[in-house]
Amino acid sequence: MSxxxxxxxxxxxxxxxxxxxxxxxxxxxMRPVVGIPxxxxxxxxxxxxxxxxxxxxxxxxxxxxxxxxxxxxGSVALK
Length: 79
Description:
By secondary structure, the protein is mostly helical. The chain has helices spanning 3-30, 35-51, 58-78. Helix 2 runs antiparallel to helix 3 (58-78). The longest helix has 28 residues, at 3-30. The N and C termini lie far apart (51 Å). 6% of the residues are buried.
């Protein structure tokens, strides 16, 4: 492996490590308020996709479905 490839791997690992640390510190404070906003964001995205005629793309419609599902699970799990 060349020197530049090793540097790229090192930079990537550092970025992932710092991101995990940031999310780990932020998540306990954000967990109680994350469920309902995810549901609203998912519904708004579905409405936007409907009015922009993007309903023929299943992969694109998966994102709002995922957000709504995670939001419902998060809301129910906290109660």
